């Protein structure tokens, strides 16, 4: 019974979840790896899913948490190597063979990658995925007011970063 439900979830949401995770972590390879972890967690948790939230909100919550966990690990690794996170963010984008954007898209991607992790996730869900604040609230467990403030701060940081890059 759960196998069929799982297959349907994978079929229906894989691409959307991939792009959700990719917008947060910035790299195709990392997004692919994280997506596999997401579906492992979904498989394990599916029998206990009670339906308190919609399936989509539940999946996005798992994917967002996995992406943020990955970013935290990346921060620790960068700190241990005494590497600049900003330089690391640019390297990930520049080294990604799947990035096919123009210079303006590159500047935006770099600016987004420099945001604090949770702010990055909120910005990506709102700006790229156009999710309503209420849905992001269900995914993150954060109030709508706090999300609006976080998004505004992220947008200001991105604007300043892009203007500096010009």
Tell me about this structure:
The chain is mainly alpha-helical and 166 residues long. Helix content is 80%, strand content 0%. Helix 4 (85-95) packs across helix 5 (103-113) and helix 6 (117-128) packs across helix 8 (144-165). The longest helix has 26 residues, at 55-80. The chain starts with a helix and ends with a helix.
Summarize the structure.
With 166 residues, this protein is mostly helical.
State Rg.
16 Å
Shape: globular
pLDDT < 50 runs, ≥5 residues: none
Largest sheet, in brief, is: none
Cα separation of the termini: 55 Å
What is the CATH first-level class name? Mainly Alpha
Judging by the overall fold, what is the CATH architecture? Orthogonal Bundle
Percent of residues in helices comes to over 70%
Helix-strand category = mainly alpha
Helix and strand arrangement:
Elements: H1 2-25, H2 28-45, H3 55-80, H4 85-95, H5 103-113, H6 117-128, H7 133-140, H8 144-165
Overview features:
Rna Polymerase Sigma Factor, Chain: A; 166 residues
């Amino acid at each position: 019974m759960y196998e069929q439900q799982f297959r349907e979830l994978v079929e229906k949401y894989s691409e959307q979840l991939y792009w959700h995770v990719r917008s947060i972590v910035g790299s195709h390879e990392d997004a692919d790896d994280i997506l596999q972890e997401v579906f492992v967690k979904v498989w394990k948790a599916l029998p206990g899913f009670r339906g308190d939230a919609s399936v989509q909100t539940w999946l996005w919550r798992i994917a967002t948490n996995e992406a943020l966990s990955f970013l935290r690990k990346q921060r620790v690794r960068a700190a241990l190597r005494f590497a600049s996170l900003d330089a690391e963010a640019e390297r990930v984008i520049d080294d990604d063979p799947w990035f096919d954007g123009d210079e303006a898209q590159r500047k935006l991607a770099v600016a987004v990658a420099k945001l604090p992790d949770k702010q990055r996730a909120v910005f990506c869900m709102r700006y790229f995925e156009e999710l309503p604040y209420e849905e992001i609230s269900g995914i993150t467990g954060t109030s709508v007011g706090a999300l609006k403030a976080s998004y505004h701060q992220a947008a200001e940081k991105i604007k300043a970063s892009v203007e500096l890059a010009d």
